[in-house]
Write a structure and sequence with these properties.
Length: 626
């Protein structure tokens, strides 16, 4: 249990002690800094502790935001400060100094604060991030001490919520009136919804999914349970689609939308109840991909029951969508902490943001997950799997072209200096294996600034021979050339303006090679096996992304070597296609898919469960805009 230490003289009629207990705190009362130091020392080191001024007046949700968010080692609102185990030592040192200063008589009387502003006509108060507070109180001084020690103290945006420490009856009465004028629960419910979301989600899902999130919170359900329910619903939808009947397709479309409602609900529940966790962020992100790609497989199976083979389209949709995501991830990591990060293109985008309708249009045309799943659901219920995949491929291709072109323009026109961290992240996303490592050692001293062009040339070497001649020695030579070009592309740190294109180009080359070799085999069952292999490899690449986003280490090199790296897998697949018959190639792809899936899943599950149990900092990755 967490512990809250109330400091100062109790205020008659205050509900503060009850509010803290409702938030899960064991409340202790300290008369002075020395008493607070004694009580703090008695709290186990692995527990959260909060120091709260007894005069605090504010909304319960303001306390919740300031004192219970698990993502931050230290956090504060006016009149209250909290520390998790990672920041406990710093808080203990700060309190010891305060006790010593108080014993020396260092603090004088507290001046009265300015009165609260009157409520607006709409009943909302002006935003008051630190609205009238007393700066000379123990909680405030401890917060300043943590800042001076370099401990990052999170201060949540309170908006219209009140958090204040009045020092006389008049200002206390004004603060209580301000609290009464704002509906704490309404603010909490609104803030459960993402600040930036897609048109479909904002107008057709969130108006009721947030109420579902509150219902789940009041019944003790966790975001991870809702995430699991969303996955199961999507898998049932995929099973319905696999029946190949019109009724099955209609049921699949309805269940896919229901799965998306639950997918929105889990994040809203996490924000509503502040139930963030490392494991939850990983489950939410990976399950989204598993749901979508399992649904593609279900549609392909359903089409096959009706005599239509659309596995190539299903695999193409997965390849395109995965490459789109890698473009997003790589661009964001390359510019995560870039300096002088401005460009005329970005300035134009900012100006367009002031024209409301353009914001929604630009959010819709990139086909975020909400629009994409709604499109898939409607087309599944009303048309055929072939039509569904064809429209999806056209829409995603347009969205990919639009977003990638915009990011290329931004990269070419901005004068940004990229950091070593960004270069390391791009190197991890590149997923280079032992063959590239060997070639890079041989190419030490090579100098160039053309990494994306070399990656593009390597990709063309890999896929063009297959397109022209199919499986054979030409494709093997092309794969060897791809490995050489891949090594040259990463021989220098990826800090160039367009170097973020290297990981998605590698993904397109590897996935495209598997797709084209399977499509040209002409044997039933090869494309489903290729679908499984690409899905297993894509999971590995997504897992790398989520580790980087969660400030965890990238997958260990032993794992990357065990699965060959992108260039090793590409070479192995082309050699297998050249040496084996089509029937044998199907078996080989299946075995390779199972091997990669087992290796990456075992390591991934081990890592994330260990991180969760080991107390890794909780995260909440908003992921792809819904």
């Amino acid at each position: 249990m967490s512990t809250a230490i109330l400091t100062g003289q109790p205020v008659p009629g205050s509900s503060l002690e009850g509010d803290l207990r409702s938030l899960g705190f064991d409340v202790r009362v300290a008369t002075d800094a020395g008493d607070a130091e004694t009580l703090l020392a008695a709290v186990p080191a692995d527990q959260r502790v909060a120091i709260v001024d007894s005069r605090f007046v504010g909304h319960l949700h303001a306390l919740r935001l300031g004192l219970t968010d698990p993502r931050f080692p230290a956090a504060a609102v006016p009149g209250a400060v909290t520390a998790q185990p990672a920041a406990r030592q710093a808080l203990t040192r700060a309190l010891a100094r305060e006790n010593s200063a108080a014993a020396d008589g260092a603090y004088s009387a507290v001046p009265a604060p300015a009165p609260l502003p009157a409520p607006s006509a709409q009943g909302d108060l002006p935003e008051r991030g630190g609205a009238p507070t007393v700066t000379d109180n123990l909680a405030e001084r401890l917060t300043e001490a943590l800042d001076s020690e370099g401990v990052p103290v999170h201060r949540p945006e309170l908006g219209t919520l009140v958090a204040a420490v009045p020092v006389d009856p008049q200002t206390r009465n004004e603060a209580r009136q301000a609290v009464a004028s704002v509906d704490d629960e309404a603010v909490r419910l609104r803030s459960a919804v993402k600040a930036r979301d897609g048109f479909f989600t904002t107008h057709f899902i969130s108006p009721y999914s947030r109420h579902l999130a509150r219902w789940c919170a009041h019944r003790g359900l966790t975001p991870n349970q809702v995430t699991t329910a969303s996955l199961l619903t999507a898998l049932i939808a995929a099973g319905c689609a696999a029946t190949g009947s019109r009724g099955g397709f209609v049921a699949a479309g309805i269940l896919l939308i229901l799965s998306f409602v639950l997918d929105c609900t889990d994040g809203q529940l996490a924000r509503y109840s502040l139930q963030y966790s490392t494991l939850g962020a990983w489950l939410d992100a990976t399950f989204d991909r598993a749901k979508e790609y399992a649904y593609y497989a279900g549609l392909a199976l359903g089409a096959a029951r009706g005599g239509d083979d659309v596995w190539a389209l299903a695999l193409g949709a997965m390849v395109l969508q995965t490459c789109r995501h890698v473009v997003d991830f790589a661009f964001n990591e390359a510019n995560h902490d870039a300096t002088a990060n401005t460009s005329p293109t970005a300035a134009l985008s900012d100006r367009l943001d002031s024209v409301g309708w353009t914001v929604w249009v630009r959010r819709m045309i990139v086909l975020p997950i909400g629009e994409r799943w709604a499109l898939i659901a409607v087309l599944t219920a009303a048309t055929t799997p072939r039509t569904t995949f064809t429209v999806l491929l056209i829409g995603c291709a347009f969205a990919a072209t639009y977003t990638t072109a915009g990011r290329v323009l931004r990269s070419l026109t901005r004068k940004a200096k990229r950091t070593d961290r960004a270069a390391r992240a791009l190197a991890d996303l590149a997923d280079s294996g032992p063959l590239v490592e060997l070639l890079v050692r041989s190419a030490r001293g090579a100098t160039h600034r053309a990494a994306p062009y070399l990656a593009l040339a390597g990709g063309l070497l890999a896929v063009c021979p297959i397109a022209l001649w199919g499986a054979g020695w030409q494709s093997v030579l092309g794969a060897v050339g791809y490995a050489v070009m891949s090594a040259l592309a990463v021989v220098r740190p990826l800090k160039g303006p367009l170097d973020w294109l290297v990981p998605p180009l590698f993904r397109a080359a590897e996935y495209g090679t598997v797709l084209m070799l399977a499509a040209k085999s002409g044997v039933n069952g090869v494309l489903p096996a290729a679908f499984g292999l690409v899905a297993a490899v894509a999971y590995h690449h997504y897992d790398t992304v989520y580790r980087i986003r969660g400030d965890a280490d990238a997958p260990p090199r032993r794992l990357v070597r065990a699965v060959g790296g992108h260039e090793g897998r590409t070479l192995v697949v082309t050699v297998l296609a050249a040496l084996l018959t089509a029937a044998q190639f199907k078996v080989a792809l299946t075995v390779l898919a199972v091997y990669v899936a087992l290796v990456v899943l075992v390591e991934s599950i081990r890592f994330w469960v260990a991180a969760h149990k080991g107390g890794a900092p909780a995260v909440h990755d908003e992921g792809e805009p819904a």
